[in-house]
User: Fold this.
Amino acid sequence: MRNCLIILIAVLVLACSKNKIPKGILTEKQITPVLVELHLAEAINSHRNTLEASRQNYPEDLYLTILKKYKLDQKVFEASVLYYGKHPDLYKPIYDEVLNRLNEMEVKAKSKDSIQNRIPAVKTIKKDSVQTNK
Assistant:
């Protein structure tokens, strides 16, 4: 009897440790690009005053547009974020990937800016001050 109890506990511990994602929750591959775009949208929203976009529902429009792009239901996305928020061991690798992608985008943007800054301005050719008389 005691051995059965020990085996049962071991099976339960192993079964619980697999971290299976429940049905209706986005996988790591599904949620990562959405989170990347949401962070970009938040950056856009934080600069909306400079863009002269003063609509009050601007953040919600960005949020819903991103969900629509990925064909996601708002409830599924919110349930996924809530699920991963309760499981930080699963959420950390996702956010590490999100940060990596955002950093790559930043590096590309900075290198593009630096390349454009290195292009020399077109020099105007000045006429020689000494002109030949014919």
Summary: Residues 128 and 134 are 16 Å apart (CA to CA). The chain has a mean pLDDT of 77. The radius of gyration is 27 Å.
